[in-house]
């Protein structure tokens, strides 16, 4: 109960902001669609498509970061989709504003707040879990351990952590984790990731 209360106090404001801001942005998009011929349920469908596309693209962007699918510095398809959704959302909000500076600012506020709330939730969801550092665990060896065993046998704690990562990846994606994805998640070398993967597959 105490843990739930802490979670609610920490995440509740962000969720409330996301709901309120999303409703405001949704209303502006719906009204803009209705003003331009998309009447009835179609105006609602347009608003749902734009807002959910932004949420979906943000989630996919975080998933790419976790799996190391996109190399650093490259623009991925989810980023392009997210940018397009942001442009459409802001354009719809500004179309409903009075033609003044403050009119544009206040009209764009719901869309901006919604995107900020979504990015905050995605940032928390993608944050590292309170696990022991795999890099630190890998170097915590006994001084009298032979050098060849240090190189060939991963630390038990690191192996357990890698096994949990592999199981979570398989449960989420329905397929075994790759060496590159394991290396990206653990922050280890290619050789160590290969050794861990080999050990996990032969265990």
Automatic annotation (TrEMBL):
Signal peptide: none annotated. InterPro entries: DUF2637. Residues 126-155 are annotated as: Disordered. It comes from the Bacteria. This is DUF2637 domain-containing protein. The keyword Cell membrane does not apply. Pfam families: DUF2637 (PF10935). Residues 141-152 have a biased composition (Basic and acidic residues).
């Amino acid at each position: 109960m105490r843990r739930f209360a802490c979670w609610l106090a920490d995440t509740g404001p962000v969720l409330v902001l996301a709901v309120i801001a999303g409703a405001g942005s949704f209303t502006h998009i719906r009204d803009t669609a209705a003003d331009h011929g998309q009447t009835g349920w179609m105006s609602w469908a347009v608003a749902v498509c734009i807002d959910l596309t932004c949420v979906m693209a943000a989630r996919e962007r975080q998933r790419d970061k976790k799996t190391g699918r996109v190399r650093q510095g490259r623009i991925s398809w989810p980023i392009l989709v997210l940018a397009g959704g942001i442009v459409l959302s802001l354009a719809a909000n500004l179309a409903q504003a009075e033609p003044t500076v403050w009119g544009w600012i206040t009209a764009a506020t719901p869309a901006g707040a919604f995107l900020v709330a979504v990015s905050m939730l995605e940032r928390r969801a993608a944050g590292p879990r309170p696990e022991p550092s795999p890099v630190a665990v890998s170097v915590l060896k006994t001084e009298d351990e032979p050098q060849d065993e240090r190189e060939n046998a991963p630390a038990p704690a690191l192996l357990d952590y890698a096994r949990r990562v592999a199981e979570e990846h398989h449960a989420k994606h329905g397929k075994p984790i790759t060496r590159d994805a394991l290396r990206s998640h653990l922050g280890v070398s290619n050789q160590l990731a290969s050794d861990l993967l080999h050990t996990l597959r032969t265990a």
